């Protein structure tokens, strides 16, 4: 029961972060955000693709049948961002992403809370 609650809370946090970061790709970017993306070597087209990937992987996490695929896609996305940050020499950004990278791994370990139905 405790694992289901923890898993549910992690899913909510992961989906919130994924949707908010994905939606940021479609908004008018601030100069600080553009500077960070340019330092990572990400242009506007790649930024839109990253936003779509973040949103799609977050939505996939919500459903038990696509839960693993969504978490793996999210982990690959975060690992890619960390690698780009390390390549650009932005170690602080890479270190900040470590807890976010651990979230999909922990979720895969815990499993989807409703994979066996809505039993209480």
Q: What can you tell me about this protein's structure?
A:
It is a single chain. α3 (44-62) runs antiparallel to α4 (67-88). Helix content is 77%, strand content 0%. The protein has helices spanning 2-24, 31-39, 44-62, 67-88, 91-96, 98-110. It has 120 residues and is an all-alpha fold. It contains six helices and no strands. The mean pLDDT is 90.
Q: Output the number of helix runs.
A: 6
Overall radius of gyration: 15 Å
Helix content: over 70%
The best one-word shape is elongated
Q: Using DSSP, what is the number of strands?
A: 0
In sequence order, what are the helices and strands, one letter per element?
HHHHHH
How far from one another are the termini?
8 Å
Average pLDDT confidence is 90
- Report the major sheet: none
Keywords, separated by commas or semicolons:
120 residues, mainly alpha, single chain, 77% helix, 6 helices
How would you summarize what this structure contains?
With 120 residues, the protein is mainly α. The protein is built from 6 helices and no strands.
Helix/strand layout:
Blueprint: H1 2-24, H2 31-39, H3 44-62, H4 67-88, H5 91-96, H6 98-110
Helix pairs in contact: 1-3, 1-6, 3-4, 4-6
